[in-house]
Amino acid sequence: QVQLVESGGGLVQAGGSLRLSCAASGNIRSASTMGWYRQAPGKQRELVATISRNGNTNYADSVKGRFTISRDNAKNTVYLQMNSLKPEDTAVYYCNADRILTTTGWGGDYWGQGTQVTVSS
User: Tens digit of pLDDT per residue, the chain (121 long)?
Assistant: First the structure.
């Protein structure tokens, strides 16, 4: 059974940095596009950044130039380096894997449990 486990959230002052990690486990052979999404209170979940298996990245306009997504395919792990954080970045951040190949075949749309990021002004 595939699991995505996020870590690295917390409380930080505006202008500070945090690094989120998301490790996928469960007899994984390969993972396709992975990404980070966030959901603030009272708002819909929104895309933050995605990265394909070969490293192509996509960012929301609101985080371009401040956040960097990366991945380690050997470890089935995706990272989100967040710099120059703003109070409006406060949200629960969720890791997503679009499709994952395990020993039993392909499965799709996996989500982590979420990690809270709070940025104080």
Answer: 899 999 999 999 999 999 999 999 999 999 999 999 999 999 999 999 999 999 999 999 999 999 999 999 999 999 999 999 999 999 999 999 999 999 999 998 999 999 999 999 9
* CA distances to 32, 101, 119 from 108, in Å: 10, 9, 32
Tokens of 93: 């951040």
- For residue 80, the tally of other CB atoms under 10 A from its CB is 26
Q: How distant, in Å, are the alpha carbons of 4, 6, 56, 69 from that of 77?
A: 9, 10, 15, 11
For residue 18, the cross-strand partners are: 82
Query: Phi, psi (5° rounding) for residue 22?
Result: -140, 115
Helices (H) and strands (E) in the chain, counts: 0, 12
3-class DSSP state for residue 31? strand
